[in-house]
Design brief:
Helices cover 56% and strands 0% of the residues. By secondary structure, the chain is an all-alpha fold.
């Protein structure tokens, strides 16, 4: 039975670390918005 508790504790700690990593990435990493220009060839607009 102690090995089961140790396994559950390990899984709980692992899930906690993943949650903290996702939370910190979502809240503390800021992105730089930028414009994207995509040219579309005119033959894609022509209907066959």
């Amino acid at each position: 039975m102690p090995s089961l508790f140790r396994f559950l504790l390990f899984l709980g700690l692992l899930c906690g670390l993943v949650y903290v990593a996702m939370f910190s990435l979502a809240n503390f990493v800021s992105y730089q918005p930028r414009e994207i220009v995509v040219t579309i060839p005119s033959d894609r607009f022509a209907k066959p």
